[in-house]
Fold each of these.
Amino acid sequence: MNISGSTRPIAILGSPLGHSLSPLMHNYLFRIAGLNNVYIPLEVNEKDLESAVIGLWSLGFLGANVTIPYKELIMDYLIDISEEARLIGAVNTLICSEQGFRGDNTDGKGFINSLLMEKDWRPYAKRAVIFGAGGSARAVCTALALNGTEEIAIVNRSLPRANDIRNNITAKVGAKVGVMLWEDRGLQDAISKADIIINTTPLGMEPKINAAPPINMEWLDQGQLVVDLIYNPLKTKLLEEASLRGCEVLNGLGMLIHQGVLSFKLWTGIEPPFEGLRDLLEKSLALDE
């Protein structure tokens, strides 16, 4: 990589960033696309977030990604926000303009693209169960609703955040969304009837690899798709057990790749070739084990 005075940098803002795969991914994409850009991780304290946004724009950064815990807070410091980002209630991508940064969110579309391209699975008229009610759940739920999912159940430890997602999507998209607690008696029925079950919680992530959402594997059957947004490990306890039940399974690495490719296109106008990207990221994850 040859960095010069004409190199346009792009950053990722968040905290912590030590294990982020985004710098590896985007610098690889810049290289194979032949672009004079560099992607750098910048850990930022919450009190400095507004100054960081102003500073990046003043220094000529082409854009940025935003990750935990600033996807919602950063919306206050942007000049414009896309309709999908407003629906999700979070921003993961900043795009430079003459007046400042615009905000968008590629998480939801990245999730849908991973389903289409890796499993040839389409959400239209399907039933979904989503575990968790954080930012990832909000993006996934919104994307499913926008793509015609017939019924969505959000399962969470507590109801307030789940209700907030349901109310937002019901009001703005019109999809049928229900909520339930982990111990709800209707959980078995919801999972048994679902076409897709999605874990958006950190249960099963390193180092707590033996944890999983409260799913009795006897509720699952062949033909269902079980998705875990975790990609470290690549095959969580949930995916291992679901696979033994004959379910199709998918980890979160595809969503990471596809949301990254969408961000890349927003910055550059180019959709990069990314055939070797999964192998690169999987090798990096294996080295970290």
Amino acid sequence: MTGKEFSELSQDYYRIEKAISYLEENYLLQPDLDAIAERIHLSKYHFHRLFKRWAGITPIQFQKYLTLDYAKKKLLEGRSVLDTTLETGLSSPGRLHDLFVSFDAVTPGEYKSRGAVLTIEYGYVPTPFGSCLLGITTRGICHLSFHDAETASAPVVLLRKSWPSAELLENSSKAGVILQEIFKPAGWNEAEPFHLYVKGTNFQVKVWKALVSIPAGTMVSYKDVAAYSGSPRSVRAAAGVVAANPVALLIPCHRVITAAGKIHRYRWGAERKRLILAREAFVAARSSGELYETA
């Protein structure tokens, strides 16, 4: 996928986000395709084409992945995956994501005591879920966050606050190459995993590693994550760690929802979380042969 295609998908995303927000706010009225398209100032046919270019399926097909019933179904499946992982360890299918993402973690104290200056190259890059900021070190990816036009400067401020002694160098070209690997249609390559460099307490790292074990197309609850991290009573603390995730997507905090199946509490916007989950669910269904696409 070219940089131009990424830019087009990023622009498409913001229109689709508005459409989904309108659909959610007016779900009792069950607005049709004409009403949704009119809301974002497009014809029905233009919106249909735009949506299928972004999602790979039609708005009607996509809508099923946004329902509460679907989320509840995936919660049950996700709990089963984590239970299996606890019993069988790395051989479990539930740990598949581990093969694609590896960790190098330091505690805040260790980072401070080492005293060496860390260089972080960063860049703003368009993605299928809007513009993001990617931060890279020689030891791995240390930051990935989304932003909107009005908050474009906020991610760099947060990056600098998270790594106060680091030297920040803008390198959007390098960031773009890595983002293309993350979003490539063929999927991730087990032989060349993404390496992350994160800073956190032992508990934070345990939670983030638990998140990495959740396969795409699956959802789990905050309670499940706390249990899998070895602290079943620390649900609120685990939720706080999920919310503080420094590397979106690769540490898939978006796959954690409430026990009731509600999708919210995403630091980069609930609608973005909803759309990431739905798109992942569609891709997983297509890969497993459960989905038959229509025009």
Amino acid sequence: MKTGHKITKELVIKVLATLLILLSFAFNLYQFWLLKKENTSLLSTISKFETALSISQTRLSSTTVEKLAVVSSLEKERENTYLFQNQIQNLTGTVGVLEKLSQTDTELLKKYSKIYFLNENYIPPKLVTIPSQYVFEKNKNIEIHEKVWPHLGAMLESALADGIKIQIASGYRSFGTQADLKSTYKVVYGAGTANKFSADQGYSEHQLGTTLDFTTPEIGGNLVGFDKTKAYAWLIENGHKYGFTLSYPKNNTYYIFEPWHFRFVGIPLATSLHNDKLNFYDLDQRVIDSYLINFFD
């Protein structure tokens, strides 16, 4: 009896131990199943997040490309607008230049000394009388181109401020006046001599109304000897600042040296001639004509 009881007790213990082992295994198996299920859920969630992230990145990339395209388009539009504005400005400038040229007498910069011819009908658009205080012979009416007078007046006053009194001996001459003057010179000096210092009618710069013969009280209002005066030296040094240049310097191929004879050619051209030590008649007519637009500036 005692032996049977002992066997039964040991059997119970073994059964219980087996049950505990089985329960423990089942519990662990259940825990593994739960973890696997949770892991699967997490992987699914991660996959969804990754998919959503990928979609967001694709959209962001697409948005960035679209933005860059818009920026590029705006830049091109801005560039086109700038080019268009420049074209409008250039066109406006060209129209302005053409309009200014159309209102400027093209004869003003022609070479008239035995080259170009002014007919008997040419008269400057408007002439003004030079005030008598600037004229050597007070009772003599001397005229000048209206738009040249402001430059001439400023130059004469500037000379006076420097203690130099420059006076006018001659200004505008009509075709007829030049013809009469040349005829007189031919009678007095002979045709050969007269041709050396006096232009025929139609070839005189004086007909333009932009040319003057200067003198000074130092030489009694004469022309000969003007190159020895302070007035001449002042004009050579400063005349270009007011648009005037000596027409017939020494060794020119047209007439004798005429130190008294100055022509208004505009400040830009006169300054260029002075700086480059050139004579008006040294330049090609096409080069001279390029200064016409700024003639009265």
